[in-house]
Amino acid sequence: MLQRIQTLFQALAVVCLALYLFMPIWSKTASDKSKTIVLDAWKQTEYGPTVNAQVQEVLKTSTDTWYIGASAALGILVMIFSISQYNKRILQMQLGIAFSLCVLATSISSFLAIRFAEATLDPTQLGMNELGLYLPFAALFLNMAANRFIRKDEQLVRSMDRLR
Predict the structure, then answer these.
(1) pLDDT for res 141
(2) What letters, b where the CB count within 10 A reaches 16 and e where it falls short, cover 17-32?
(3) Domain region containing 106
């Protein structure tokens, strides 16, 4: 029964985390425009100054942050498996909890990576949160909504069993 509303919520949660893997999470430019740091799910990249408007910035260094992407990818796999288990509602709710833990690990590791990156470049100036930072929270909200509807289905099935 893939046409249920909770399946739609779960699919949207997968889309949110999939977009998270490819969007920037955070960026910061030095006050003198000499350096820019961009953080995404797979790496933290430091760019040098731009020569002029037509020339791209020169890449200086890149640091791996694969653990952020790995926890998000694990959450995607858990949710895809949960979608395929539509006839086992209790297992789906348990997988929803596992998904929430993966999203929590993703968010915590993102904030820690932001904290470390912020310290490397003018700690008094704040960086800019990108759209990617908010996508795990949207996925978490969609997962909570899906779990609510899964629980309602389970209660409905149990009430029908009492009537027999």
Answers:
(1) 97
(2) bbebbeebbbbbbeee
(3) 5-155
Q: Work out the number of other CB atoms within 10 angstroms of the CB of residue 69.
A: 19
Domain CATH number, residue 35: 1.20.140
Helix (H) or strand (E) run with residue 12 in it: helix 5-22
Token output for 81:
């498996």
Q: What is the pLDDT of residues 103-129, one digit of tens each?
A: 999 999 999 999 998 888 777 788 899
Q: For residue 3, what is the DSSP state?
A: T
Measured N-to-C along each axis, helices 135-163 and 89-120 cross at an angle, to the nearest 10 degrees, of 170
**Secondary structure (3-state) at 54:** coil
- Site of tokens 């955070």: 26
How large a percentage of the chain has pLDDT more than 70?
91
Give the sign of the dihedral formed by CA 106, CA 111, CA 112, CA 114: positive
Report the C-alpha gap between 35 and 41 in whole angstroms: 20
How many domains does the chain divide into? 1
